[in-house]
Amino acid sequence: MFSIYGVTGQVFSGTLEEMNRVNALARTRAARAIAQDGEEPGIEAILGASTRLREDAVKAYRSMLPRDLERGPLYHAGQIMQTTVIRLNADDSVAHAWRTLRDHAIRQAPVMDDDARLVGIVSERDLLTALNIEGGQIVESLDRLVRDVMATPVVAAVPVTDIRRIAAVMIDKGVDGVPITNETGRLLGFVSRGDILRAVVTDPPLSLWR
């Protein structure tokens, strides 16, 4: 189960398929300049074709697997997430945020508002749009806050989410990590690309397909 949080609060809650369908519909409608609804093939047809191609690929993969291949354990986000999470406030300066990431040797951090609600995520790349770094030190900083450069809204997942689905979100959204929250939006942990890679290499075999 995934949620999307922005500065106004939770804007979506549902499955990966529902989230992708909402995003696909939004992209399709945004691309229509002259055409009206009903003048082109529906999004359901497009999504259906994509689903059939994916299912065919999975079947082809399965047909090549050894019959006696042992399935590895099914990992959930709650099993691999980091529970000690470095977080930033939306009103922190970009200089403070960069030093926090550097001091803790991390590349991104969830961003909270004054009420401890998840509102975004900020990466080293985001901060460098407002900073000039030389020799590991800040030599110039624009007058910007974390809220000015962070990515928002941000996708979050609940602890029982399959890590393969979290990996799919990372690839699709181009992010390096996904915050883990409970149903009320309270931050519980964080899953990074490194967490998923460690899960794959330390306890094989991890089946990548169902």
Task: Write a short abstract of this structure.
With 210 residues, the protein is an alpha+beta fold. The chain is built from eight helices and ten strands.
Strand and helix order: EEHHHEHEEHEEHEHEEH
The overall pLDDT, averaged over residues, is: 80
Side-by-side strand order of the widest sheet? 2-1-8
CATH architecture of the largest domain: Roll
Distance between the termini: 18 Å
CATH class category label of the largest domain: Alpha Beta
What is the number of helices? 8
Largest pleated sheet: 3 strands, antiparallel
Number of folding domains?
2
* Percentage of residues in strands: 15-25%
Instruction: Work out the radius of gyration.
Output: 20 Å
Salient structural properties:
210 residues, alpha+beta, CBS-domain, 2 domains, three-stranded antiparallel sheet, three-stranded mixed sheet, 8 helices, 10 strands, 23% strand
Descriptive account of the structure:
Strand 6 and strand 7 (137-141) form a beta hairpin. The protein has helices spanning 16-31, 43-64, 77-80, 94-103, 124-127, 146-149, 163-173, 193-202, and strands spanning 2-6, 9-14, 88-89, 108-112, 118-123, 131-134, 137-141, 154-157, 177-181, 187-192. The protein is an alpha+beta fold and 210 residues long. It contains eight helices and ten strands. It is globular. It is 39% helix and 23% strand. It folds into two domains: 16-64; 77-202, CBS-domain (Roll), CATH 3.10.580.10.
